[in-house]
Amino acid sequence: MEHGAPAGFSRTRDGAVAAAASYVTTGQALLDMDPLAAEEAIRQMAATATADEQVADMLAKLRAARDELAEGTGPIVYRQAAIAWRVDSFSPDRASAAIWNVGVLTRDGVAPPQAGWAISAFDLVWERDDWKVERETITPGPAPILDNSAAPATAAQLTAALRGFTDFGSHR
């Protein structure tokens, strides 16, 4: 971890996949940071050539999410997981990898637990001795339906049931 962001990936195909999977699951960490810390974390993950654009885009998304959730109570919970991956191209200097992922967001009073499914396609470059995000393109879905084995949880139920759990990849 550097500046609150994942770092230290190997200059291999597996290292590129690990970087993409780690980057796609940084939402909760970024939501928990103040804007200056979030900017440092985003710049840590970003390629130099596109860092300013990535910072502006992500800070705007974080601001919008916080504004939407401001009327709620309790913590903003955003659990994310990388489900599957695909490598579209790889060389020691550039890689393209796609991660099928899910994010579960909730905040009591404003956002019942909801899952957002997406494919995040990353163009990565090797610079500063690590894989950096040159570009991320997010495509919604594919999303499975619930299997009716459990009723959807409320925000309070989800928070209570997962109390004490730590997200994979978290260093808290």
Q: Which key terms come to mind for this protein?
A:
172 residues; alpha+beta; Nuclear Transport Factor 2, Chain: A; 4-stranded antiparallel sheet; 5 helices; 32% helix; globular
Task: Provide a descriptive summary of the structure in words.
With about 170 residues, the protein is α+β, with helices and mostly antiparallel strands. The chain contains five helices and four strands, in the order ααααββββα. Strands 1-2-3-4 form a four-stranded antiparallel sheet. Helix 3 packs across helix 4. The longest helix is centred in the middle third of the chain and has 19 residues.
Brief write-up:
Helices cover 32% and strands 35% of the residues. The protein is of the alpha+beta class.
Quote the distance from N terminus to C terminus.
11 Å
The CATH architecture: Roll
Number of beta strands: 4
How much beta, percentage-wise?
A: 35-45%
Counted up, domains total 1
